[in-house]
Amino acid sequence: MPVSDEQFKPDRSGLHEPRPGESGSPADPGGGSEAGQSGGGSSGSGPQQPAPAFNFKKLFSDLAVYSSGSLLIKGMSIISAPIFTRIFDPAQYGAWSFINVMVAFLTGILMLGGDNAYTRYFFKCKTEEEKQTLSATWFSFLAVWSVVVLLAVLPFSATLAEWMLGDDTYRAALVIGLLSSAPTMMNLILSQALRNRFRARAFTVLNVLTAALILTLSVTFVLAFDLGVAGALLGTAAASMLMIPVRLWYIRDLLSWSFSKKFLKKLLLFGLPLVPMNIAFWLLSNADRLMLVRLASLGEVGLYSIAAAMAAVLMLLQTAVGQSWLPHAVKVYEEDSVYAAQVFKRTMVYLLAASGLVVTGFVALAQEVIFVLVPPAYYGAFAAIPFLAAGFLFFTTAQVSAVGIMVKNKTVYIMLACWFVAAANIGFNALLIPPFGIAGAGAATGMAYILFALSYALISRKLWPVDYPLKLISALLAVPLASIAIIALIAYSGPGLWANFALKLAVLLACGLALTLIVGGAEKFSLADMARMLKRLLKR
Prior knowledge:
Order of helices and strands: HHHHHHHHHHHHHHHHHHHH
Oligomer: single chain
Largest sheet: none
Structural class: mainly alpha
Radius of gyration: 24 Å
Number of strands: 0
């Protein structure tokens, strides 16, 4: 029988269990399914209508589009690296990267957990008028809030520059960076509106335009006006400001002259617990550079920033997974929580298999990309990449399990987990940076992401148990991890550049074959089934 990639097939395997209410599934005698009792789906005295089949084709289509858009808009560090590493020395590049880290921190504060809160209540709205009121309330509040915060922070810019960077040489750059956080935040929340409308193509088009503006303006301010690090940051700020009215036009159907204190209260109650979580997650993601500044130098930060920028490609893919998965996951949970558990199981398996291949391929090509991308002064950046990649592989599981926490409105557990892991990450960096430099920073961050994924899995299982196939997941993790270790060994001990490259590709091919066989065996796909699937993919 041909394999369908759009819905579960009850006659396949344990991953393809029949949906509640379908033929062959255990009947619910009173019609009171878990969905009706746990807050997902609807309940009533009459028979429950099954929710529409979850469309995996739509999920992965959105994922592909969101990934390309996110890689462009958020991956500007790596896109601009060939230019700025030839203009800035490692210390200047480190300063630019560090200020961007601080901008990301302030952007998270200004967001107030608003993207997740907005998505959660957007799908609870019953009418278009409610969605318009929700959107207008949240957008206007965040705009006013961002102005208030910036007015409070900017007077301390000189003190912040001296404390974080050692002197006030980069004060102007820091001020520009801080100012850019407000328009950056507004662009993010307006993009979330497009995701909630499932307008993936519009999302990507606007991000392509934003990326082009950022690169063009940043290079112009640096080279034509000789503004140095400040010019690179000014380009980002200017592009973000120019894009706000464009994004507003694209979501004009969600705008209205209305404000609801009731909606604002709900959004803040959901989003505010995420702010400490976002701070903790920022520490988790950036403690390596904070510690390198203190325990090493801006030059070391510059080298590590290349590795982090390259590894950020993986994080951006993870973020795209979350962005495309979250609306689908919340929707299917609200319609039928029992069926949602089966959707979550299958999504975990497929995303982990895909992530394993992508992460392995990334490490296999990373060293050669560095040789092409940046001058020799930055070649040492590869030392951190295998460790970061391994951590991001585990982080894939958190993208799925986190939704299990969010749909139960228990985001405080996410905050606690993030703070626990952030504290552990600081400790790991303090122990590993002094003896191992940027390799130690990469290892510390990778270990922290593994701990992060395990924490999410345990919390999600406590709140909403999903019977994930643990043996299958273990296999899907073990194969890429072994492949990454072999590739790193080849990179440092192989016979030569081209021979090393060929050996790495062989390892990648073996990894892909092993992952395919593992998933195919679990799904009980025959070789003919897999051949048909590959043929359909190639035709697309």
